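(Fold this chain)
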Amino acid sequence: MRKNLLLTLLLLSVSILFVPQAYAALIAADAVANSSWYTLPVSLIVDGSGLNNGTNPPTHSSTDWSTSWETMPYQYSAVVTFDFHQNMNVGSFRVWNFNMVNGNGSYTGRGSKDVSIFTQADGGEWVDRGLYLFPEAPGLDSYTGNLFTDQEWQDVRYVRFDIHSIWGEGDTGGHTGLSEVQFYTPEETEPTVPEPATMFLLGSGLIGVLGLRRKTV
């Protein structure tokens, strides 16, 4: 009986050590746009500015004017091209739309709405991935963006956003904008190892059970 109990606990501890966990890696990217406002360059949507990475998913916790991109005035459409600098497999991407507010009100109407997405391999042809709707940002510092999953884009170096329209409420000034965009590799699984504190508790429990068993034998 004691051997069976010990074997059961041992198998349990091994299963805890190797529980598979899904993860997707962030793909580093640069960005260029056909138009940018002077103090809001397109580089701001790929540098993590305004993101609070202490949460999962990250929140766009800045609603001021320093952490987003927008076009020059009276350009209600735009083109943004992302470059990974090598061919990558893309499984998903997250978009934080234009999330700006100030004392004069909300400017989230400048956010991108109807967006055609194209991808291109290094040296390849552009591939049409379809028309996407980017939801309007809430203008809050708890904004988690919108995740677009199951993309299955293979061997992609460039991703192009052809932005056709904006949400348009309030004072848009004719600008088109985004706050942040991140691309991720397809989800993979890997074994996870408990932290030292978890291992200590597991070992303590095993010793305690064996001690209890010794007393009752």
Summary: Residues 198-202, 205-210, 212-217 have pLDDT under 50 and may be disordered. Helices lie at 2-17, 196-216. The chain is about 15% helix and 35% strand.
